[in-house]
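--- STAGE predict ---
source: upstream dedup step, 1 unique chain passed
mode: sequence only
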Amino acid sequence: MAKQQITIPIFIPHLGCPHRCIFCNQWQATSALALPGPGQIDERIREYMPRIKKSVRRVELAFFGGSFTGIRKDVQESFLAAAHRHLEAGIIQGIRLSTRPDYISEETLDLLRKYDVSTIELGVQSFDECVLKASNRGHTAADVYTAVERIRNNGFDFVIQLMPGLPYDSRESSLDSARRAAELKPSAVRIYPAIVLSGTAMEKLFRTGAYTPLSLDEAVDLCKDMYLIFKSFSVPVIRMGLHPFSPGQTHVVVAGPYHPSFGYLVKSRARRNELVASINKHLHSPAGITGRSIHVVIPENFKEEFIGIKKENMQYLKEFFKLDNVVYSVRPVSEIQIIL
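--- STAGE serialize ---
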């Protein structure tokens, strides 16, 4: 399916951040080489525009990598004014930014409204107070609720960012954070499983054995369940996992569940659940599975997710149900079909 919306990122690593969270090294995570000046926004947009396909109906400019509303007000205005010129010209259709829950005030929101900012992304990471404290976040879960109320009352869209797998986190805590985030009804969420990046306090914990990150399989399974929680609340998940590093930059990942196609792995795991549930229905029906082979008809629109990397979902079905063979075909259907 062709993309209808894209985001042009402007990275401002650590700008506006009051301190360093233990997991954070935005210079590594964003691959930025230097802080941008407002004039570079024009250059960034000129770079992106020729690559935007005709299917795209909405282009947004986004300030990521720091706590935007923690930046000195005059610097905020210089960035926002540069972006707003392109908004007025119709070159972009939205401005978004990321910040901290405790850096949302009425005065701040007045400034953002002045420049027609449409979406505020909140780096929440967790609703568990122990996790927040251990991660040196410097805010509480209560700050999240206060920020969301102010943002909503002022008419902005908001996105919640979560980071499962931090120190003192657990599966139950991560799923609780997902439920609490979903209940706030954000316009979207991002899920970034914790990765140990070089140059962070979390790397020191890892090196001394005081912290063990999630394995890739654990992270995929956990994020799959978080993804399904948001899906049940009709909250879009617009990103899972860090944006892929270039081949020459992967050395910055010391440990943890990094994968360049992490979101695909999660969605594929969710589709695998659907396949198992669909086959189980037939197992408990009068017909059952009469032979040692089944034929699975997969919806064409999501065929990659259903099949999995290297057909791993088909292999899983074969092993899980102890079948001799699983045959699949791709058709323009709306749901899975099982042919016995």
